[in-house]
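Q: How would the structure tokens look for this protein?
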Amino acid sequence: MHYDDDCKVVVLGAGGLAKEIYGWLGDKIEYFYEEKKTKNDIYGIHVLDKLVGNHAFVVGTGNSSVNERLFIKAVDAGLKPSSAFVSSRAYIGHDVTILGGTIVVPMASVTGPGSIGLG
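A: Here is the predicted structure in token form.
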């Protein structure tokens, strides 16, 4: 992954992708966030049910409409999108822009020209 070594993030979404996101980001995760909290922690990382503070975040769900809603909710709560997390095992083509708050997973193929927007 390409990221700032000091960056800790809140992962928006703590459901089905939590294991994969933990596998990709590991100790970069400060908290998970779940709108309808069903667990207190994932792999020892606390799950929040409220978005507060001055945290960086990434969106970690597999549903684009949920991603958009969570992104807006996080920004409205004062959180900032993190840098993008891009797996070294993903293919990123020429003329591709990837903005913050996103995760590009291993084995993904992103071809250009094009961009992935915030979150």
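The chain has two helices and twelve strands.

The mean pLDDT is 84.

Upvote if useful.
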